[in-house]
Every structure is written in structure tokens, then in C-alpha cells.
Amino acid sequence: MTLTATLSLLLAAATTPLELQPAGLTSPSALETAAPTRNAAPGHDDRSDLVILKSGKEVECRVILEADDYVLTRRGSKKKQYSRDEIAEIQSVERSLAALFERYDALPARGPAQLAELALFCEQNELPSEARNFWIQVLTQDPENEQAWNELGGVYTKRRGWRLKVRGRFYTVDQLRERVSDWKHAMEIPTAHFLLKTDVEPERALNIALNLERAYMTFYEVIGEALALQVFDEIPEVHVFKDAKDYPTPRFQGDAAWFSRGDNTVYVNGAGPAVANAAIFKLTHALVLNSFRRTIGGNGSIAPWTERALAEAFSYALEVEDGVASWEFGRPIMEYFRFQAADEKPLAMKRVISSGYGAFNNGTDARRYNAECHTLMFFLLHAEDGKYRQGVADYMRSSFKGQSAATHLEKALGIKLKALEPQWIEFVKETADR
């Protein structure tokens, strides 16, 4: 049994819970080639979390927002708010993820024993997809690990070795490994909040799955509280292609990644340069759409310049070391600041605010739009100790409802653009001179 074959089998079959497979899939061929369904990943229901009140009452629910002084929960179509003073303990998917990454990052080594401990932690804390992925990681290092095989539902015989039961029948590695070597039989890896579909090498695929959840947690940590964003369970998909020939044509030629709002899917050319940053750039668009749609309702969008600035910030702040993603925010993109400071024909603030998505991708002014939307957002978040930060948050929420005009920004910030623009220009020059 080869390592590659072992991983291919497990990722092709064991990672997809049988009860979630579409009806009518009675053969291994149908099982492996079926297109992913929108709810192919486990997701979370309205009993995934637990709030224990000081009175002793236990409330099974979904914790959708934790603010400084209150917690908002959902059960079915009903939402209920609890003050922090009422609550003795909270158990939630997001808290479990935070604890998981804290444990993961503190490990002195990531051998089979340590990964098995993480898998057991996930099993005990409502993270079944992450548990499954860690058991597979155990097998990447120890292909004959009996505990991992048992946890994944494998069956062992002396004559045939380890096999996996798929819809009532047992299959060896050799019977399935040929089917996952190209995109049409790509692996599907559910995570706590996403469904990853990819034909890249399994070790890289498992790292991507973990990093998707790191991105989710970072997004809510950085802007969730200011925007009072509720968690979402819609399960966006992320498709990472090993071969550029399988990568769907992006809207703008040369893009290494793109996001389809209609499909709620991020498409990534895994063979492209700087693909991690490009992928996070587009993943930010998916996070914005799903979090705002869950929080505010409807299918709107925030102002293009703010969404672009957020995506730029998350992409620029990304660092990947030893396969682990992290984000370092608060650093200005100096190239943009220096470009604007030296620009003889800078755009007016109102023009940046009223621009559409196409302005950032087409035409001779595209670089100006990209530079100035970054410097403007950085200015509003950091100037005068964050004086305008909450106003930007209020504006983003209102713009999702269609109120994205310059007058709405003025109202949210409490200042006219005519008075604000000179402050922005001076901030850009000072930053560029550092």
C-alpha cells in the first residue's frame, strides 16, 4: 500500500459522510464522480452550540454573535439575546476552532501521536470534519496506523490489508486510486465552514483545509465585532485546481483566483504564481458576502472600494510558514502610499468612493483606484487613533442595504468629504515619507 494511494482513497471516500450523499448513488463510480451539492459539507444546525446559564439552564442553539456585553443565539427562526451576566459557560464551534488552533500552534512537533490528540479533541468539541482531516494527516506519516484507520471506518484483513466500506461494499486502495488523479474525480474535503474541492497533492490539500478555517476566524476577529457580524453556515466552496487547463476562465484575464457570487464558490488556479495571496484576496469577497448576508439579510454588496480595500488588506497581511497561514495587520502597503504621494493626477475622494468594480481592473486608472482605495481605508482605520473606525463599520453595513453614496459615508463619519479629503492627503504624504 503506497502513501499516495492511501491518501487518495481516504480523501475520495472517507471524507464524505455517507448520510449526506445524494440519493441514488449506488456504485463507486457514481459516488466518486458526483458533482458536489451545495450542502455537501456537514455545516452546523441550531443545536451545534451550548449556552449554560448561571441558573443552571442549558440552551442548545447556534451562537451567532459574541459581543462584549451580550451573546446572540439562534434556534430555528428565533433569535435570543443573553447578557454576559446571565451566562456561566459557552460552548461553540468558533470557540472550539480557536482552542484547536491554539493547541496546534503550541505543539513542539506534529507527529502521529500529536495529530491523533488533535483529532480526538475535535471529536469531543463538535468539529467532525477537522477530526477526520487530522486522522488522515496521521496516515500521511504512519500509513498503517490502526487507530486512524478504525476512526475512519477502515476494515483490515490479512489477505487484503486495510479497506474502506462505501455504501455497503468494501474497496481496496487499488480499486479507487486511479479515479482521483484528475479534476473530474477531485477530492472533496469538508471543513467547519467550507467545502474544499481539489486535485492537488493530499498533504497540501489538508493544509489548505485548515488555513481556510484560520482565514474565517481571522476575518471575524478583525472586523466581526466592529460590524456585529453574525456567523454563517451556508458553506461556500473553494475549488483549487492542480492543472491550469481545468481552471475555469476568470472574468478578468490573468487572475489567479476569482469568486462567483452566484455559485458562492472561490476558484483558484493552484499552478499560478503567488496563488495563496490571490486566493485569500478572493476568499475575502466570499467571507464578506456570506457574513453580511447572514447578518443583514438579502443579497446586497458593500461599496466596491471598501470590499476591494478589505480584500487587499487580508491578502497583503497573509504570511505562510511551514504550511500554516497567519496574518499581520496594521502594515501600510508602502508602494501604494508612495505612488499616490507622487501622483500628479490623483483621484478625488468622491470618485474613489463612487467607483464600480470595473474601475479596479480595467483602464489606465486601475492602479490609481487600487492605490487610493487602500490608502483611504488605511487612513480611516488608523488616523487619529482610529477616530473614524466605527463610522467606516456603520457605512459598510448601510452600504450592503444600498446606501453607499458619498453622502452616506459623510453621515456615518460625521464629517463632510470636503473637510476630510485634506486630512487624507496629508496622511498619505506623511506615511509615504517614513
Features:
globular, 46% helix, 434 residues, alpha+beta, SH3 type barrels, 15 strands, five-stranded mixed β-sheet, five-stranded antiparallel β-sheet
Note down, in words, how this protein is organized:
This protein is an alpha+beta fold. The chain folds into 3 domains: 3-41 and 96-300, no CATH class; 49-91, SH3 type barrels, CATH 2.30.30.100; 327-432, no CATH class. Helix content is 46%, strand content 17%. The chain has 16 helices and 15 strands. The protein has helices at 3-14, 28-33, 93-106, 112-124, 128-141, 146-151, 173-176, 202-227, 275-296, 304-317, 334-342, 349-353, 366-382, 389-400, 406-413, 417-432; strands at residues 49-53, 58-66, 70-75, 78-83, 87-91, 154-157, 161-166, 169-171, 187-190, 195-198, 237-241, 257-260, 265-269, 318-321, 324-327. The strands form 4 sheets. A 5-stranded antiparallel sheet has the order 4-3-2-1-5. β10, α8 and β11 (237-241) form a beta-alpha-beta unit. α4 (112-124) packs antiparallel against α5 (128-141) and α11 crosses α16 (417-432). It is globular, with a radius of gyration of 24 Å. The relative contact order is 0.09.
